[in-house]
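Example record

One chain of 216 residues, shown exactly as stored in the release files.
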Amino acid sequence: MKIKSFIGGFDKNISYLIWCESTRRAGIIDAAVDISEILEFIESKNLILEKLFITHSHFDHIKYIEDLKDQFPQLQLCGYYLQEEDFGVNHRGLTHHEIIPIGTEILTVLHTPGHYPDSICLWNKKDNCVFTGDTMFVGRTGRTIGAKSNISHLYNSIYETLLILPPQTIVYSGHHYGFKKSISLRENVRLSTFFQCTSEEEFMKVMEHFEKNRRI
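Predicted structure tokens for this chain:
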């Protein structure tokens, strides 16, 4: 699977264009940045955009949905089946462990609530990569201070869903908050106390310390 990242949006947001090289079928993960550069790239590669994946429905991740719908009226909007927002008739509700094709490439849906109830991650087993939205960043997790966030759910999503993936899996998150844009799970665990906890209580203490000293 081919991957191209685009940074912009509200707060160093990242949208990803993913595609199958053999069929030219493509999808976008999060409508979080101005679409002009994405459209130019799609045209330059002669890609066929058929899906938009919504990692969660916070405003900064869905800001440019209407722009994409104007350009691609048949675009399938793929998000968790219990979305916090109404995405209309083209919404395809996804469930935990559902398999979604992009041409000959395969994505597995992982429901990862905590930062937000409708958060999902998208795992490509073949190429050892996972798109984590705001559930996991380079060096830390997403925050849980907002409405509908839940730290217990986030702990389970991190430790029972994401950290059980192969350690060589590369994390592509929804914001460029770390010292680099992507990172392996192995390295993320090694460098960050967020991913070294042995209990939910310890995780909560790490999160509390982060919020008291937060700069980003």
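Notes: The first helix runs from residue 36 to 45.
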